[in-house]
Design a protein that fits this description.
two-stranded parallel sheet, alpha+beta, 2 helices
Length: 68
Amino acid sequence: MTRAIAAVRGAIEAGVPGVLGIHIEGPYLSLARKGVHDPAKLRELDASALGLLTSLRGGRTLVTLARK
């Protein structure tokens, strides 16, 4: 996620047409609502993850979450 956010940040700063932000789907999903996601890769949302997910400036961030 860190590399993906950095890549989007660079694209926005470079003015790449059509790049408005990033959509992050998972890994902050509940086992009951995980869909096709690998349950071994699911994580709890914590303060450090929240900091990462809100780190993009100058663009939009869409995060798919599912709670128990």
